């Protein structure tokens, strides 16, 4: 039987992907230089919503699958960080706000709502899933390699390689950090985000083990 919580989570992340695809301006128009190399997958938002949609779909269809436990810390950490990072670093960024106003004027009137559908309910859904559904606890090495490996790979490929190929950082906040802290600025943010992902993953592991 499909868990209503898993179904709700899968539907929530499907809605986020729908909002990105149909309510937001295409990245080839909105940010052609920033997204030239990797397209929509440049965005942590899109990757997080894809990861979580796939994870919760798996949990709907095969709740006893070994990957449900092993991948939960990654799903939990990425979804939690998506909401927090967006509203703390990107939503209020002046450069982003100016860009949003421009696209709203061009007819993308659902863009403000799309911003919230893409980012706003990821954390509540992650908490609902983590607190309501039992699962096998991932190992500490799973958290290290999966959460840490994903964070390092995203920074190396989408951020650093993307900057080299595109000539621009994928997110405006990275420009601000580079101006404020020099070349080390983006690396400091990446180190902090990867550390937070690991801590969230370990906390999720402890929660699963305690509930077992």
UniProtKB/TrEMBL annotation:
- The residue stretches assigned to a coiled coil in this entry are none
A GO cellular component annotated for this chain's UniProt record is: endomembrane system
| Keywords for the protein's UniProt record, in alphabetical order | Membrane, Transmembrane, Transmembrane helix
The membrane topology noted for this protein in its Swiss-Prot or TrEMBL record is: Multi-pass membrane protein
Where does this one sit in the cell?
Endomembrane system
- Report whether Nucleus shows up as a keyword of the record: no
Family annotation (Pfam families): Far-17a_AIG1
Bilayer-crossing regions = 71-89, 143-161, 181-203
Listed name of the protein: Uncharacterized protein
